[in-house]
Every structure is written in C-alpha cells, then in structure tokens.
Prior knowledge:
There is one protein chain. Helices cover 49% and strands 15% of the residues. By secondary structure, it is of the alpha/beta class. The chain has a seven-stranded parallel sheet with strand order 3-2-1-4-5-6-7, sandwiched between helices.
Amino acid sequence: MTTTSTTEQTASLARPLTGRVAVVTGASSGIGEATARELAAQGARVALLARRADRLDEHVARIEAAGGTALALPTDVTDPASLTAAAAGIRARLGRVDLVVNNAGLALPDLLDGSAGANWQRMIDVNVTGAFAVVEAFVPDLLAAAAERGHADLVNISSAAAQSVLPGFAGYAASKAAFSHLSRNLRARLSPADVRVTNIEPGTVDTELRDHIDDPAISAAVQEAVGSIEGIPSGSDVAELIAFAVTRPPHVNLSQISVLPTREA
Length: 265
C-alpha cells in the first residue's frame, strides 16, 4: 500500500497536470497544437478544438502515441452552437474543464482599397467575439472547478500587437487590444472566485499565422521582416510558458506575460 502511494505521488510530481481537463482552441497548428501536446505531456486530459478536423485527428494520434489522453472536436469559435456542443462533449468524455487556453485567432491585413471591411469583420468575429464566446462556453466549468479544487485557469493568447503600432494590420492590432483589455476585465471578475486569468502577448513566433495573408506584396513584406529577426520563438516555446503559468501554486497568478524574440526591437 505504501509502495503504491509513493509511486502515485512520484507520477504526480513528474506530470504536474495529472487529473486536470484542458481545452485548447485553435489547436490545429502553431501555438495551439504545441500547447495541446505540452499539456498532455504534463498529464492533462486535453480537448483540441479547431475547424480543421483532419489536423486535429493527426495531433490526437501523436498525443496518444506518446501516452497522453486527447480528444479532437472540430469546432468553430464563431458559432455558439458549435461551442456549446463541444463543451457538452468534453464534459461527457473527459470530465469538467478546469483549464482553458483561448488561442484561436487570425491576422489579416488592412488593404484600404475598398475591401478591408471583410477582413476587419472576420478578425472581430474570431479574435474578439469568438474569444468571448469561448469564455462564455467554459466559465461555468471553471467556476465550479475552482470552487471544488481551489483554482482553475483561463489563459488568453493575445498579441504584442495589442500594445504597439503595426502598419498594415490596424484591424488585427485593434482586435488584440480589445482581447487584452477583455482579459484584464475578466480577471477582475473571476479572480475573487479563484479562477486565474493569464493574458499572454506573443510577438513574432514561428507559426503559420502569417501564411494566411493572401496579398502577395504584404505577404512578402511580412516574410522579409520575420526573416530579418534572428532566433524566433516557436510555438513550443510559448506552450512551455503556458504550462509553467498554470502549474504555479494556486495563490500565484501570472496575469500578464509578453513573449518576444530576444533580438526583436
């Protein structure tokens, strides 16, 4: 009996998220995919949410092959019904959620040629309205989990663009500024109930986000700017930081974190 208890304690120390149920949105690539892998490696049961079902299935297979527990749920954060169904599916198959990484987002340029309105609306829909819809879908679980176990975690992935001028991407910067300010207000609302809110603002990260730019000139300019920076953090670098933040003692909340390449001015 003593041997079993010691073994379980050792396993728990080695995998600090054992027993926790995590949700990661935007989990088909980049920071989201890396975060799902990292949380699973640290013992969490992880639900991966994104629109690209084939990608999610591949990631879940890798996580399970490595000994983790994961669930793929094709979900569109701009569709409340889709989120509601996903939340119900997670509760039924993994249990009550106590960790949410609110990561889904996109970056589109401001062409200012009469067609910018569509890009603006799409970013507001995903980066602001969709992000808030994720909060609405899972906050009841987070509050219940915090009441039971003493803490739960909501991690919002914003952008360094929320704090700076980003020529050609004013709509993206504005949407992320709104998201960062939403995070601050959510922390004021949720922290008294022991739900920790962490807002992370990455700068340049080596993900496929910039590959979604359709305009050839803007795409080339962005690729050139990114290529001029030596030592760009990867999605895994950000994922490790997320895992660090959510494994702090319950009374410690890393509320605001910036992640920048060392050589990015």
